[in-house]
Structure prediction request, 296 residues.
Amino acid sequence: MEFQSYQDLEQVLGIPINQLQFLANSIDDNVKFRPKVIKGKTRVFCDPSYKLKKVQRLINNQILQKIPLPESLHGSVTGKSPKTNAEHHKGKPFVYGLDIKDFYPSIHFTRVQKLLLSLGCSNDVASLLTRLTTYKGSLAQGFPTSSTLANLILAPITPRIQKLCNQHGITFTFYQDDLTISGGYRIPNLVNLFTAIMKQEGFELHHLPKKKKPMPRTVKQEVTGYVVNHKVNVSKEYYRNLRMTIHLCKVKGIEAIAGAMPVDKLRQSLIGRIQYVAEVNPTRGKKLLADLEALK
Prediction:
């Protein structure tokens, strides 16, 4: 990646440099805050304008996503998914999940600029790209570039973690802000070392709420939404709840179950959940989809 001049950047993105600079200078006018409820918690997303989002997608597709990433990174990586992340941890004696606290806000714009400089950008180009991809001093939830930039920030950290894992026969993966480690019975004694490494690299780890201690095989081991005790699968509770929801739609009518939610939105949500099942159990997924399509 060599962007030593504005002309280099202009050529790759196909947008005049004066337009890019104008967007960077008026970023406050091109971002709106949008609250969104995820798993019962309200998070605030930054919603870029059409013009800014178009530029960010070009930066992401034409520049950032062309940079190779370590195999241990799975979140927002082409060809990878929550399932590929979970596959690495199936059938292990212990599984342990931690996450990075305030992940995007903790990635300061100066860190993004240093990353771009290290990848071969000139000072001027790195500064402009940083201004186009950060907001209020850090990565922003909702920008198309944020997940890729976060992965590129994590990439140089992985050799340190890999070295520790190799010494103790442990597997690790990142799914954005989720760090999962799995392996033998020494894991409970090594958690503090992983935490210390991440802290030295500028990230604070804390235990995932549902994983307050290493999960042995005797309990449900869950990684990025999948159960991994023996093979990668959805939990029984997830499957039963989904099947029950579709059944209630059949008995009471999908409009009644949707309530205030638009019917099309509920249907798309159910399709997404069915696809999640189909990833690991195509037969069940096909049956659930047929039941949904049979609804009037």
About this structure: The mean pLDDT is 92. DSSP finds 14 helices and nine strands in the chain. The CA atoms of residues 30 and 49 lie 5 Å apart. The radius of gyration is 22 Å.
